[in-house]
Amino acid sequence: MKCMYCKKEIVEKLSFNNVFSKKDSLVLCEECKYNIDINITELAEYTLYYFGDYEFLKEIIYNIKYSGAIHKAERFRELFSLFFKKYKFNLVTIVPINNTRKYSRGFDHIAQLCNVCNVKYTDTLQCDYREKQSKLHKKREKHKFRIIDNLSFEKYPKRILIIDDVITSGNTLISCAEVLKERFPDAEICFLTLAKS
Ligand SMILES: [Zn+2]
Prior knowledge:
Belongs to the ComF/GntX family. The protein is of the alpha/beta class.
């Protein structure tokens, strides 16, 4: 049996008990057990799920984000899979990258993280980034997200999940949630991030 996160072989005695309990739960080595979990907390009026503290995950996140080593995101695949077994959503979406950053780095690491981890998502938001204006008008920066053109669903999405890599202040995720809430006022909105700082 391998650790879901670091993929290290876990040596343990198989008892009747743990064969059955392992199927839908986290399988982690002793080291990862302290650092990785499907954590649940509250952020404003929303539910936030995250896998670990930023201190523990910062190196891998840095790799995914800046060095283009997106394959390293593979180690989150089983965690995502278990997460979606446990929690169901009608709409999974991601925090959009602003166009300026996308062009300078050349890739959207949240979209790629989802692809590597087999997370099916729908683009719902876009980010209009106006640097000069946001410096002058702080409020404008907070509400820089908007719903993409021509977004439509056959069914009203009752439970919406927004994915991002790291949560710090929560401002970005809350801004995204507010925009979606305007469009889908009856939806319950949750967040999932790899890390919380
Ligand atoms: Zn491990």
